[in-house]
Amino acid sequence: MSGRRVVITGIEVLAPGGVGAANFWDLISSGRTATRGITFFDPAPFRSRVAAEIDFDPEAHGLGPQEIRRMDRAAQFAVVAARGAVADSGIDLAAHDPYRVGVTIGSAVGATMGLDQEYRVVSDGGRLHLVDHEYAVPHLYDYLVPSSFAAEVAWTVGAQGPGTVVSTGCTSGIDSVGYAADLIREGSADVMIAGSSDAPISPITLACFDAIKATTPRDDDPPRASRPFDGTRNGFVLGEGSAVFVLEELESARRRGAHIYAEVAGYATRSNAYHMTGLRLDGAEMAEAIRVALDEARMNPEEIDYINAHGSGTKQNDRHETAAFKRSLGDHAYRTPVSSIKSMVGHSLGAIGSIEIAASALAMEHGVVPPTANLHTPDPECDLDYVPLEARERRIDAVLSVGSGFGGFQSAVVLARPERSAA
Amino acid sequence: MDTRQFTITDLKRILLEGAGADEAVDLDGDILDLAFDELGYESLALLETTGRIEREYGISLDDDTLLDGATPRSIIAAVNSRLSVAADAA
Amino acid sequence: MTVKTVVTGLGVASPNGLGTADFWAATRSGKSGIGRITRFDPAGYPARLAGEIPGFAAEQYLPSRLLPQTDRMTRLALVAADWALEDAGVRPGELPEFDMGVVTASSSGGFEFGQGELQALWSKGSQYVSAYQSFAWFYAVNSGQISIRNGMKGPSSVVVSDQAGGLDAVAQARRQIRRGTGLVVSGAVDASICPWGWVAQLAGDRLSTSDEPTQAYLPFDSAARGHVPGEGGAILILESEQVARERGARIYGEIAGYGATMDPRPGSGAEPGLRRAIELALRDAGAEPGEVDVVFADAAAVPELDRAEADALRAVFGPRGVPVTAPKTMTGRLYSGAAPLDLATAVLSMAAGLIPPTVNVDPAPGYDLDLVVDRRTADIRTALVLARGAGGFNSALVVRAA
After folding, report:
1. Cβ A163–C201 below 8 Å, yes or no?
2. Distances, alpha carbon A310 to alpha carbons A170, A173, A320, A328, C25, in Å
3. Which UniProt keywords are listed (chain B) (predicted)?
4. How does residue A423 score in pLDDT terms, banded at 50, 70 and 90?
């Protein structure tokens, strides 16, 4: 099965400020930001009280009453995104052997929102250590084990091939797509419904990020709270969302005349083996992941036209990542536009990797580099071209998108036009 | 009025509860002026430790309490300075 | 020529034995680790039995710096990984750091740790939530902590597919070895025997409510009434055969084949996917059904799931066509930890020439399985391990003697 190549033929995105891939692209190409004061619950007790929330009406997106009752918000996102991606690709899955269609969904924190809410009830507000099973919702097991997300997506699209949830913290959304691409390449599947979803805006998540001061306390100016690569950045803005793709083997996609957004040309993940939350500032492991992903794509650093950065807006991440780009791409790093869409849609943990892959594919599609919003004050330690404030027109034949996650995971994916001469 | 003093004994207790101790380090030795990384504690251990101090003593420490080079002496001083503010306010 | 992936080290943490030697001594002789829950008072819950690991004192094995930031399942996983590396004769510090990866499965993360922090949040306030909560309960924690403790910078991952994930992790590890990584630490350890985890498991509606340890978990028995949950699992060292042979390592067996499918949507009436997963694994291994010497069953002990597994086995192997065993009757179901433990048991069975028993079960005749209820001597060259997860995940893995 060697020589099989994998392409993206369908995209759907649910992101703050932009539900639907078209709305999402509108938001990020115009440089608007979706951060606001938290509305889901009273954020007063928390240090960081801003987030990028989605105004999501599950019924308006076609979910039935029972689907809504049994699924956590993140699972709902994934199912809506999967249906949208399949529709976008125009693929007739009924014409495929269901055992040749698989599912991978990335998620860092699974059904956190559902678990937080249900714990509060069964414990009677934290009062009971021996929590009361009589008050548990019938679908609590599906919150406990988030592979339910992949099962729900499989049921909705009729897939019966390999299926799993990939959960590697904040690189889940890249690793899920990488895993799926590997399954197609090795011949275990012909089509993968792959992407990721997280809905972490819940008190327990806010509290744990408060405790490590990872989220920004810039609560008085929400739209300007997320400031990747800016000298005044002081933490990330929590977000939520999902992006799901239809991945297909190149030749079969061509045979059916599918619209091809991009080839998943190379992917790699490495670990820093250093710290569960900290980063060594030399970026060596992310650089190694980038190097291997380029190698797999048989591309030189000079062929990368745009870098879609992790750009979380924490002090250490943006320096770490800047170092990794220089280390892996050399001088080309200085000539390549780099941007962080987290400035606009926040950091949706395991979901953001796929949302950023969607942004990368759409950037190729439109010939536009989305900007880094809120970047006004240069940081001498971050001295690359971060495309501040305004989108930039540019032909893009290849994009590098990267992610960095708690647990030390560092992942890189290269998207390219399949008709490029290499390969 | 809060007349409590925060001492090295309190700090060691909270460190051990919240972050354990590096087997190569003797916390009972002369550690007041050693940087926390020399004592085997990284940022996360210090965040956990200061969180515990803040809760136990009902104070709020500045973010820069934990800047590079913090030592047991600097944290003890920061805590006691907050405690005296709290006492004056009481 | 595809690189072969072999098992060179085992680290076991099981309710009926901590460490490979204790585990195998118990397993070969049918000794169970199932009993009434001791970690909390289960009297108020409809299910009260579990497979708990007794006598695990993490402070004997792990530095005190790690203890406040780890859930019980992570401590067990770190210790099991240490044992597996030692068993393999590998000192990670002597190997190239990018040449070692960690791929584990999880089902519920550090759930007991999570309960403590949720309790602090809702009873005392958000400022009482630990700095460690940001990673101690998430699904990726074991891979992350094992990679940090052992300096492993190669490709790492975490999969969640309920109980099937334990095999999916091993398959992903094999994928990385085929792509050139020399050594991958794989397998899984799960534990969520805390009140909050228990209530969530009860909601799954598959737990046995029996109070009698010998009558509670009875897969393929006409008295099957759900399963007993357990904690633990196994960590395995996987290496490319060439690397293992060059360094003169003991080879327990080869990961020869793998297949994974999902069931059709509930209520569709279509055939479940397990048979297809078995056929894919056999084809991947280049093995005929007749070559399989023993099957380690998923053994759900829920009548319709037992029926589906028996149907799949009969369809592939014929009626009573292959010895089938479920040593997990001695441990309870360990979620993502179960299948790696079965895989460890399979290679230990090969070495011993012995199929360990399915305890307490009186096989229901209708299933037409050759269920091994008394241990049986056998020359085992090829074993099939099955694992299914809630939601319809089916994974099958073929392991061959070296």
Report:
1. no
2. 9, 12, 10, 15, 50
3. Phosphopantetheine, Phosphoprotein
4. very low
| CATH number of domain containing A364 | 3.40.47.10
Report the half-sphere exposure of A272 (CA within 13 A, side-chain side). 26
Q: Of B42, B51, B63, which is closest to A211 when you measure between CB atoms?
A: B51
Same domain, A88 and A176: yes
pLDDT at C1: 59
Task: Output the CATH code of domain B8-89.
Answer: 1.10.1200.10
C228 falls within a domain: yes
Instruction: Give tens-digit pLDDT for C154-212.
Output: 999 999 999 999 999 999 999 999 999 999 999 999 999 999 999 999 999 999 999 99
Give C134 to chain B, closest Cα distance, Å: 11
- Best residue in B46, B47, B52 to probe A by mutation, most A CBs within 10 Å? B47
Question: Taking Cα atoms as reference points, which of C388, C265, C370 lies closest to residue C323?
Answer: C370
pLDDT tens, position by position, A194-242 = 999 999 999 999 999 999 999 999 999 999 999 999 999 999 999 999 9
Confirm whether the ipTM is greater than 0.90: yes
- Domain with A317, as residue range(s), is 266-416
Q: What does the block give as tokens for B70?
A: 């913090």
How many domains are there within chain A? 2
From C163, C108, C175, select the one nearest C141 (Cα to Cα). Answer: C108
Residues C53 and C163 in one domain: yes
Q: Does C101 touch chain A (CB under 8 A)?
A: yes
The rounded mean pLDDT for chain A is 97
H-helix or E-strand containing A358? helix A352-366
CA-to-CA distance for C139 and C122, rounded, in angstroms? 22
- Tell me: do C141 and C270 sit in the same domain: no
Contacts of A276 in chain B (CB under 8 A): 44
The CATH number of residue C152's host domain is: 3.40.47.10
* DSSP helix/strand/coil, A413: strand
The conformation of residue C357, written as its DSSP 8-state character, comes to P
* Widest distance between CA atoms in chain A: 64
Mean pLDDT of A139-148: 97
Same domain, C275 and C302: yes
Supply the DSSP symbol for C161: B
Distance from the Cα of A66 to chain B's closest Cα (Å) equals: 42
Q: Are residues C147 and C267 in the same domain?
A: no
3-state secondary structure A127-155: CCCCCCHHHCCCCHHHHHCCCHHHHHHHH
CB contact under 8 A, C107 and A144: yes
Q: Chain C interface, mutation test: which of A83, A167, A197, A277, most C Cβ atoms within 10 Å? A: A167
Active site residues of A: 170, 310, 347
Residue C78 · residue C62 · CB < 8 Å: yes
Q: Which residues of A touch B42 (CB under 8 A)?
A: 275, 278
Q: Closest-CA residue in chain C for A213?
A: C131
DSSP A82-130: HHHHHHHHT--GGGS-GGGEEEEEE-SSTTHHHHHHHHHHHTTTTT-SS
Distance to chain C for A255, nearest Cα, Å = 26
Identify the pLDDT of residue B2: 58
Asked if residues C199 and C116 have their Cβ atoms less than 8 Å apart, the reply is no
| Domain ranges, residue C136 | 5-246
What are C115-126's pLDDT values in tens digits?
Answer: 999 999 999 999
Residue matched to tokens 């690569």: A229
Q: In this structure, are A232 and A363 located in the same domain?
A: no
Report H helices in C151-263: 165-178, 195-203, 241-246
On whether both C140 and C274 belong to a single domain, the answer is no
The torsion of the CA quartet A383, A386, A389, A390, rounded to 10 degrees, works out to: 130
CB-based burial of residue C151 (10 Å sphere; 0-12 exposed, 13-18 middle, 19+ buried)?
A: middle
Please give the C-alpha separations between residue A296 and each of A260, A300, A308, A364, A421, in angstroms, as whole numbers: 20, 11, 18, 20, 15
